[in-house]
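retry 2 of 3: previous attempt timed out while embedding FE2/S2 (inorganic) cluster. Reduced batch size to 1 and resubmitted. Inputs unchanged:
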Amino acid sequence: MDLTLHIWRQKGPKDNGKLEIYNVTGIDTDQSFLEMLDVLNENLIKDGKEPVAFDHDCREGICGMCSQVINGRPHGPHEETTVCQLHMRRFKDGDEIFIEPWRARAFPLVKDLIVDRSALDSIIQAGGYVSCRTGGTPDANTHPIGKPIADYAMDAAECIGCGACVAGCPNSSAMLFTSAKVAQLAVQPQGKVEAVQRVKSMTAELKAQGFGNCTNHYECQASCPKGIDVKFIAKLNREYIKALVK
Ligand code: SF4
Ligand code: FES
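retry 2 succeeded.
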């Protein structure tokens, strides 16, 4: 499969970036999108040119690092799929593919396709944890939790912190990410104890980091590779209102 790639190139935060055109040939349909970029980079290095900088780590859909907007969609055209799990069989021979970084004020560009997503870490540091000792894995079974609550918490815990919800949202809102973290802990006995302080601290940090507000576009849910539901944003709002009246 031969492809024409339009890739955002930008040497650093202060440079003007632009889309540059690259041709790749002989791509196997079984290769992943990142493997296709590896082929491009090997060719660029052989030609003495600067390879394209992009983030990745696990390449298994669990770390949330592979942040790229492909043909206008965070994580590309296939629903509930991270870039690293996107296969080239989703494209056709001769396709033109546009590859850009996440774009949001809270995610300053570092280089090419890499942005600084540490604003999400700051939100977690503000309260996305349980501060008491809850024991090791075997101890979890000594504190039974009903199946509906366990399922609800697990659905929220699927968030991998990739930031696609922010990149997809016209307001660059991180409400889906924050709501998943708040909801996951708010329904569990270990997390309920600090629920009031948690929702206040995390929403304050959300604002401080420069993310926009949610205005119900649902683009976050559509962009999310883990299918995180906007029902968690409703839960976040309920937790916030409860915290205000306590
Ligand atoms: S809610 Fe979805 S899109 Fe947003 S950070 Fe979590 S996994 Fe990524
Ligand atoms: S590289 Fe880890 S989720 Fe894609």
